[in-house]
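Q: Could you fold this chain for me?
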Amino acid sequence: MAVADALRAEGASVSFVGTRDRAEAELVPAAGYEIDFLEVSGLSRSNPLRAARSLWQAARAVRVARDLLRERRADAVLGGGGYVAGPVGLAATRAGLPLVLTEADSHLGLTNRLLARRARRVCLAFPIEGLDNDRYLVTGRPVPESVVNADRAVARRRFDLGDDDRCLLVIGGSLGARSINEATFEAFSPTASGFRVIHVAGRRDHPDLQRRREAAGSPPHYTLSEYEPGLGELLAAVDLVVSRSGGSVFEIAAAGRASILVPYPHATADHQTTNARWMADAGAAVVIPDSELTAPGLLREATALLADDERRARMESAARSLARPDAAREIAGEVLSAASGARR
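A: Sure. Below is the predicted structure, expressed as structure tokens.
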């Protein structure tokens, strides 16, 4: 959607293709964009019957996508690497439409590996070894303008943070990260630790954590919520972030925040560990492997960082050095260039 906003700012008409059971079904219309839906599902690597069903759906979706592109009078297609992007990207290239791909992780996912040789440009969030010819361009991962332009003073007032308050933000995605949620609750909810905690738990674990919080007397220093629609004000308000290390590392970097990263251990090709190490090698983050995450260890690390303003300032500067705030505009430029070339 960050790229869509950049395209719209240049006068382009933008619509999306997604599935009805994923987040885009709500987020895209809420952002003011139209969306068409395909009936597709991820490819199972363990269940042959489900894999066969997914392939049948994908083949059918190529024909549906071809008709959608014709109805939308598309000049170019941007693929984000998900399983919807496969049929749409294939339909686009069969129709002679230029295809631009984005890869948010430190390796090419299956869909992008299959489509890359057909694409005009593949925009990478990270440099990837061996992908250094003219087809590939390292742009960084797009982040919303709300992250780049958030006002810290306004954000801190929203969360009732005083000038001298130190605040820790814990996030784990819309569903949540169970190991992080459990360690966070055990570490920070029982007693005040000298700083505020904002814990965005995700929809899976929030009900249980909320009951436990109420049973503990709803400690005022510890704020628990299920979901926040945007990270802009959250990141602007706080002083330290605990998070998984998926694509959100670019939002953390764009906000210039020090972080403790706990990579999801089952991510494809272990890309979250690669992402986290990229941040840590630059001095922007501390990495705790999921298998080593404990409540006492998390409490100790967070307390030390929040008490050390100089170290945190160095980490913040390193994070900003990694940020690519113009990624959305750069990718939008590639799409517009591809569309313009096709018209000629």
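A (continued): The mean pLDDT is 92.
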